[in-house]
Structures are given as structure tokens and as C-alpha cells.
Amino acid sequence: MTDATVAALVDRVPADARDLITTLRGDGHDAFVVGGSVRDVLAGREPLDWDLTTDADPDRLRDLFPGARYDNRFGTVVVTRGGVEYEITTYRTERDYDDHRRPSRVAFGATLDEDLARRDFTVNAMAFGWAAADADDAPARLVDPHGGRADLDARVLRAVGDPDARFGEDALRMLRAVRLAADPGFSIDPATLAAIERHAPEAARLSGARVGAELGRLLVAPIPSVGLRPMRETGLLAATIPELAAQRGIPQAKIPGDDLWDHSLRTVDAAAAMRPPASPEDEAARDARLALVTAALLHDVGKPETFTDGHFHRHEATGAAIADAILGRLAVARGVRERVVRLVRHHMFSYEPAWSDAAVRRFIQRTGADLLDDLLDLRVADDIGSGLPVDGPMTAELRRRCRQQLDAQVPLRREDLAVDGNDVARALGIPPGPRLGRILDRLTERVVDDPGLNDRDGLLALARAIDTNLEDR
Ligand code: ATP
Ligand code: MG
User: Fold this and answer.
1) For a tag site, which of 151, 273, 400, 414 has the least CB within 10 Å?
2) Relative to the CA of 118, which ligand 1 atom is closest?
3) Nearest-CA neighbor of 13 among 84, 116, 78?
4) Fold assignment, 3-154
5) 3-state secondary structure of 251
6) 114 C-alpha to center of ligand 1: Å?
7) If DSSP codes are grouped into helix, strand and coil, which group holds residue 339?
8) How far, in Å, CA of 278 to CA of 282, rounded?
9) Does 48 score more than 90 pLDDT?
10) Ligand 2 midpoint to CA 87 (Å)
11) Is the CB of 383 under 6 A from ligand 1?
């Protein structure tokens, strides 16, 4: 690689990160940009974050960067500049292995080459920057001992060194492989892929949180099936989410030749295509997209268990419980997990144009107004995944009718009633409790049926009638 190209890379480094490099070099240390940042910048992409590595030990780093956060397990120092966090890591020969393998302490004093040799893939094992011995005005150098540049150009993911040894050290690297390969255009080198097939069962021992983090990164890829397909074919899916691996071979009559797993993959890709990837800074948008895509992946997860005589009896209820268990195991954020479970539970609605407006309101009430857009998007994705016409007219019509009701701000929940619990308790002379709760539920039902009933005096009269009825029984 020419010096001019490396110099161009340096120009891409944010000024704040360059200041950190200057500080390190001024103190007589190596300073290199390393890992995913180098990979991304060489691929012409904006890195998610800029990671630095150096021979300075963590104590020295804390002196050089007062106020930095220090993770003493791995000797990583996090410096915040301009609201952005930069990780500076001392050269090391151990990484964040699985719990039972986690080194009790990290030995420092390693070299850059030793550090790079313990990274997972050749494209992730490059660094550019300056060694301590370099003259002040020396051009930056690219350190690429494992042919990462060539592999990146060929879009090949290849383990550093002996793949069997590397996956034996840390099974998470296999999930990182399929996650990184979810980047369209990338493929996994055949020897690396074969080693993944041999070691896949070891992924069953990984902590759920580590698996969940990589899966989350896989699912926000532009075309998630590109990573999910090898995840199943190598046995990684069976080791980590056996409930989904069980979809293989379950019939799915809609597209000839497809089984249920094929249907899930098509649905996932359709869902991902409906929501353009969010910018990494916009966490809310990223989570919303992640929830929809995860729901697409899991929407039929209850089918293998409920499959009898060609039917899937109430698979959405079973599926919601299985999805909840999977996402709990993978330590998925509670907001995302709850949303996915609700989407799975409600995804089997069937709309008819003959529905009254009251039926539309009951539908909104049942699913929750906040879920509607995702639920209808999930249905469109499910239809696409079943080979049905894109955005069937039924979904579009239901969406329009729901919107109409919501725009009219019709009462849909207890809190929307023109009376509250206290009003009813006082008017009827009854204490708060289950009976009052039942009355309020009935009132809500009646008002959802007929929003015209939502006035205070009318509701109190209705509450009396309901109460008498309850007593009669
Ligand atoms: P992304 O761009 O999605 O963050 P990344 O490759 O930067 O991808 P990180 O988790 O940020 O992923 O890891 C930073 C770097 O640390 C990697 O590029 C790789 O060099 C190294 N690394 C991370 N996890 C492992 C691991 N389990 N084993 C070996 N090296 C790893
Ligand atoms: Mg990274």
C-alpha cells in the first residue's frame, strides 16, 4: 500500500482522536488506530467507533488522560472527547473470552504484532499509526501481518491463524463471523467456515448476553438472511436458538419448496427492507427496527411445537411464550423484548372489510395503538414471505381505518373515559376493588363500541345499570 493511501486514511481520523494520538506519541509511545475502525475506513465506510491501541500501560494512560474511565479487567481506558467515547487499549494477548475462560488478569507488555495475532479475523487485525521510534514527521504506517487488506478487497472473512484453535479459544468468534458476513458481498473463507461447522456446538456454552449482542448486530444488517442462513447451516443456530432451528423441515405450503425456516428468512428480509437502517446514533430508531426484524424472525417460532395434523393450533400464543424465553435468555433489552412478544402474540389477526368501525376500535384496543404500525408492517412482511402480493389491499385498508379512528381521538382505554374510578365509586357508594374494576371494564367496552356514550352523566347512569346487573347474577 502506498504512503499516499495511508496518509489519506489518517486524514479520515477525527481531530479528537488525532489529539489522543499526539498525546501518546508526545509521551514516547506507539499510537495506532486498530480493529474494526481500520477495516471500515479501508472499506470506505464511516467507522462506528475509533479504537486506539498503544504500548502505554493502563496506569500511564490514566495519568495522560485524567478523568478517563478505566475497565481494569481488560486494561481498556475510555476517553470522552466532544461527546464521543474513544477506547484506548494497551497491547494484550488476551481478549474478552467467555466467562469460564476469562483470564483472571491481563498480562501487559505485549507487542503490536502479538496483539494483532490474537484478534479474530484478518480484516479486523490491522492497525495504522506510528511506532514510538518513528520520527515526529514520519508518515503513518499500515501494519497488516495477516493479509487483512487483501482479504478486505476480496471481501473474505478469514480467521487469523489456525481457525480451529481460534474458535476453540472463544466460541463467540463464530457468531461474529456470521454477523460480519451479514454485510452483503462478504463471504466466509472455506477453511474458516469448515472450522465453524466443527466447533458450532461449543457456542451453546456462550453467555446469552454475548450471543444476544452479536445477533442484534446481525439483525440490523441490510439483508439479515445473508448472516442467518450460514448461522443455521453451520449448526450455530441449533447451538444458540434451537427453537428456531426446529423450523427446518416444517412444511410451509405457501411457496413451493419452502419450509418454515425459509419462510422466516423471507419475512425477516422483507421486514428489514421496510425500514431503512437507522443511523447508529439514533438508538430509538435502531431499537424500533430491531424489534420489528426480531418479531419477523420469531413470529412463527411456536409452529414446530404446535404442529399436529397439518395445523398449528394457537401457535401465536405458544410462540409469544417461546419468544419471551429466547429473548430473556439472550438478555435483549426489556423494551425490545416486550414489543417483540406482543407482536408475535397478535400477528394472527384476520381483517375483513365487513368489520364495523367498532370492530376496528376493538382491534386497536386489543393490540394497543402503539403496536399498530409494526403489527401491520409485520403482516406485510409475512405476506411477502409467503409469496402473497406486496402490501395486500386488506392490510392497507385496515391501516387506513385504524388511522381514521386514531385521528378522531376516540376513547379506547379506561383512562380515556369521561369518568374515573373515584367518580364511579362515589356515585355508586362502592369501595375501590374488583367490582369497581369490572364496572370500569364494562364501561370501556361500551364506549369503545359507541364513543357517543362517553359523557359523564350518561356514564354514571350506565355504571349504575351495570352494577345492578352484576348484583343480579
Ligand atoms: P463493529 O464495527 O460492528 O463494532 P468490530 O469488528 O469493531 O465491529 P468490536 O466488537 O467493536 O467489533 O471489536 C473491536 C475489535 O476487537 C475487532 O475488530 C477485533 O479486532 C477485536 N475483537 C472483538 N471481539 C473479539 C473476539 N471475540 N476475539 C478476538 N478479537 C476480537
Ligand atoms: Mg467496533
Assistant:
1) 400
2) 29
3) 84
4) Beta Polymerase; domain 2 (3.30.460)
5) strand
6) 16
7) helix
8) 6
9) no
10) 10
11) no
For residue 142, the cross-strand partners are 128
Measured in angstroms, how far is the CA atom of residue 53 from the centroid of ligand 2? 13
**What residues contact residue 76 under an 8 Å CB cut-off, 6+ apart?**
58, 70, 87, 88, 89
Q: State the cell numbers at 399.
A: 391501516
Model pLDDT for residues 347-404, shown as the tens digit of each residue: 999 999 999 999 999 999 999 999 999 999 999 999 999 988 776 788 999 999 999 9
Ligand 2 (single-atom ion) residues, CB below 5 Å = 36
Of 50, 57, 63, which Cα lies nearest the Cα of 17?
50
> Which tens digit of pLDDT belongs to each residue from 418-449?
999 999 999 999 999 999 999 999 999 999 99
Residue nearest to atom 30 of ligand 1 (CA): 119
107: left (phi over 0), alpha (psi -120 to 50) or beta: beta
Task: Take atom 21 of ligand 1 and give the residue whose Cα is closest.
Answer: 119
229 lines ligand 1 (CB under 6 A): no
Rounded distance from Cα 86 to ligand 2 centre (Å): 11
CA contacts within 13 A on the Cβ side of 372: 22
191 contact partners, CB below 8 Å, separation of at least 6: 158, 159, 163
> Is 470's C-beta closer than 6 angstroms to any atom of ligand 1?
no
C-beta 120 within 6 A of ligand 1: yes
Report the run of H or E that residue 350 belongs to, with start and end.
Answer: none
Could you count the other beta carbons within 10 Å of the beta carbon of residue 114? 12
Instruction: Tell me the CA–centroid distance for residue 15 and ligand 1, in Å.
Output: 23
Q: Residue 49 in 3-state DSSP?
A: coil
Closest ligand (CA of 166): 1
Mean pLDDT of the chain: 92
Name the residue at shortest CA distance from atom 13 of ligand 1.
36
Residue corresponding to grid cell 356514550: 453
CA atoms within 13 A on the CB side of 279: 3
Ligand 2 center from residue 442 Cα (angstroms): 53
Considering the four listed CATH numbers 1.10.260.40, 3.40.50.1820, 3.40.50.1370, 1.10.3090.10, the one that applies to the domain covering 160-240 is 1.10.3090.10
Give me 265's grid cell: 428468512
